[in-house]
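Internal tracking record. Fields below are filled automatically when a chain is submitted to the structure queue. Please do not edit lines marked as system-generated. If the sequence contains nonstandard residues, flag them in the REMARKS field before resubmitting.
Queue: standard
Priority: normal
Entity type: single polypeptide chain
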Amino acid sequence: MAYRRLLQQAIDEIWDNTVWKEKRVKHWYSVGKGKYKYYETTRLIPYFPKSSEFKRELRNKLLQNWSFAKHYVDSAIKTAYSILESWRQNYLKGRRKRKKPVVKRKFVRVKTTLMKVEGSKIRITIKPREEYLELDFSGEWFYERVKGWKVGELVIRDKDVYLAFSEEVEFSGKIKIGIDSNLLSLDVYHPEKGWVKVDLSELHRISETYDRVIDRLKSIQRKAPKRIGMLLKKYWVRRRNRIEDFLNKLSVQLSREFPDTIFVFEDLNKFKMLENGSKRFNRKLSRATWGKIVRKLSYRVPIEFVNPAGTSSTCPKCGNKLESRNGLVVCKCGFKSDRQFLGAFNVFVRGLGVALSGGEARDLLPNEPGGELRLMSPKSVVSVDLNGRTLTPTPP
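SYSTEM-GENERATED OUTPUT FOLLOWS
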């Protein structure tokens, strides 16, 4: 109860010092037959105080009547900002009203500075040198699996405790692979395995299938707002869960397929791509989940980013700009390649710290005699196995 009151007080203080600014925003709704009505409104956008001075004053104010360990105050401030940021995102999407969040659940977020771990036993400081809480997870089903792992922050609730574990993995960092992100595939260049294409067509099929259902429901929502609203919520949840399941399995299977490897991605900005595309292309692009793929992979493997400029249009042999012809790229110097292979290869080269301005022929491909780049097909095409643990070959 004391932590909940502390957390609510932190939220109240941040809320009272929030600055609201007016901003003109555009909205639209369907009027049928593929036509839309557009209108503008003025919205109040919240900006939370985040200066070091404000946080210091907030901490001092919360400590005035706090009789427990001081680190709980730091935890409450961090949690308060997390709650308010979540509320802000939902408010901007129209899912929340301009109403201050209220903490109803009883819980305590415990920082690692308040914990002492010895084997399977955790001692949590309530009041320094006075009161402690001891936990022992040696009898839990997961004990053998996480034995020796590092224990992170934990959350204590009324009837249960959430534990977070992490394991340090040794990594040599000898191999880098380049990944070109496309709408229907991830094209991987590995210096030993060559070009591997990861098929993402199933992911887009899932998105398109649910988008058609959702678009149809939106077009008739005015006829039965409450009922259709419930159906929309159901299909949105299903769509999200199926995509999350696919991405989780993709990240696991990619990390198993390329172990002990640094994954090099392009630092893409999807919103800039939306500016010059057609409506149909933009809809497909909006379904791309490149950011989520990278984020989920980052929990398992090291990630690096490179500048995406010119990776699919620069000749790695002479540095000139390439001409695109039906998925192939051709250079004046005689170089020919598949566009997607070239993108993955150039990302790989840029990940090694080499500029895409041409270079010695022998330095282009270390696994091919003479370093010659030639027209080729993927050495393997693989897809995510939704029932397994490794990527599966796609039949030709």
